[in-house]
């Protein structure tokens, strides 16, 4: 009986490790193929290829403001699935409102080389910020991270702090710890619920943000849908509590994961544009 119990424990530990290793890969679901053509929306982005510190080449699209004088530049860190050829749709309306925006792929996504991991994602974010500041817009940048892109955006902000001015950091439906997100995934099923503590042993936070307080005094905005099933709204509430002022938290009633700007006839778009205008005026 003792031997049987020992075998069962060993088996469960192996299963737990495999599941948690899967949690690390759970963060990345890249696709290489082109999923949507922006020319069908009469948009013609500029193709950009950047080299990261590790030598990978990452692909980006730069969409210029459709107004004569741009109001700023938004650097978009997309989520964990597909690639930029679908994610650009989230802000396809922004150039008409006077903003440039740049969306890029992490290593292993779309036309980018390499394989996805936390280090490579942050290096891609840093390369994108450096490119925009040097070649496109020397004014403070707006960093916007959705889902997985949120944690990458926050760490990127720390990496470029003091070198590249930042106007806003906006984090939608995201998390500040890979370990904690892994634990939340384990928590969702009864048969993995007891294994939650192992996420802290297997998953690394080496490339997560070191401290949300360090981002201050750049204004931080957290956005989350109350009905989000991919990343629970409590994640944004925890980040908001940890961050220093200036900060805001918007919880969108019944909002899901990635549909917030399409709800209620685009109501959030106007709210977001007002926020950018307000914070731009305050920073001058």
Q: Structural class, from secondary structure content?
A: alpha/beta
Strand order of the largest sheet: 2-3-6-4-7-8-9-10
CATH superfamily: Alpha/Beta hydrolase fold, catalytic domain
Number of domains: 1
The overall pLDDT average reads 89
Largest sheet: 8 strands, mixed
How many E-type strands?
Answer: 10
What name does the CATH topology carry?
Answer: Rossmann fold
How many separate helices?
8
What separation lies between the terminal Cα atoms?
A: 73 Å
What level of helicity do the residues show? 25-40%
Name the poorly predicted regions: 14-23
Instruction: Compute the CA-based radius of gyration.
Output: 20 Å
CATH architecture descriptor name:
3-Layer(aba) Sandwich
Residue fraction in strands: 15-25%
CATH class: Alpha Beta
Shape: globular
Could you explain how this protein is built, in words?
By secondary structure, the protein is an alpha/beta fold. It has a single domain (about 1-284), classed as Rossmann fold (3-Layer(aba) Sandwich), CATH 3.40.50. The chain has helices at about 1-25, 85, 120-135, 150-160, 180-185, 200, 235-240, 265-284; strands at about 30, 45-50, 55-65, 70-75, 80, 100-105, 140-145, 165-170, 220-225, 245-250. Strands 2-3-6-4-7-8-9-10 form an eight-stranded mixed β-sheet, sandwiched between helices. A two-stranded parallel ribbon has the order 1-5. Helix 1 packs across helix 5 and helix 3 crosses helix 4 (about 150-160). The longest helix is centred in the N-terminal third of the chain and has 25 residues, at about 1-25. Mean pLDDT is about 90; it is low at about 15-25.
């Amino acid at each position: 009986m003792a031997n049987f119990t020992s075998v069962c424990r060993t088996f469960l530990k192996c299963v737990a490790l495999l599941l948690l290793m899967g949690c690390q890969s759970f963060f990345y679901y890249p696709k290489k193929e082109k999923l949507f053509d922006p020319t069908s929306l009469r948009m013609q982005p500029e193709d950009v290829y950047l080299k990261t510190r590790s030598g990978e080449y990452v692909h980006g699209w730069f969409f210029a403001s459709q107004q004569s004088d741009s109001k700023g530049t938004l650097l978009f860190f997309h989520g964990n699935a597909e690639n930029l050829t679908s994610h650009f749709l989230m802000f396809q309306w922004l150039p008409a409102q006077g903003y440039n925006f740049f969306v890029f792929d992490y290593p292993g996504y779309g036309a980018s080389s390499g394989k996805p991991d936390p280090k490579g994602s942050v290096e891609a974010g840093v390369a994108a910020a450096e490119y925009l500041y040097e070649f496109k817009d020397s004014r403070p940048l707006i960093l916007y991270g959705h889902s997985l892109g949120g944690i990458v955006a926050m760490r990127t902000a720390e990496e470029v702090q003091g070198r590249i001015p930042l106007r806003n950091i906006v984090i939608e439906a995201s998390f500040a710890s890979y370990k904690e997100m892994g634990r939340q995934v384990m928590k969702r099923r009864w048969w993995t619920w007891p294994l939650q503590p192992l996420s802290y042993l297997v998953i690394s936070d080496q490339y997560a943000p070191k401290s949300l307080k360090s981002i201050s005094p750049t204004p931080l905005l957290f956005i989350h849908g109350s009905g989000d099933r991919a990343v629970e709204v409590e994640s944004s509430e925890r980040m908001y509590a940890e961050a220093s002022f200036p900060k805001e938290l918007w919880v969108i009633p019944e909002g899901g994961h990635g549909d917030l700007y399409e709800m209620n006839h685009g109501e959030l778009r106007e709210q977001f544009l007002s926020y950018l205008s307000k914070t731009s005026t305050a920073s001058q």
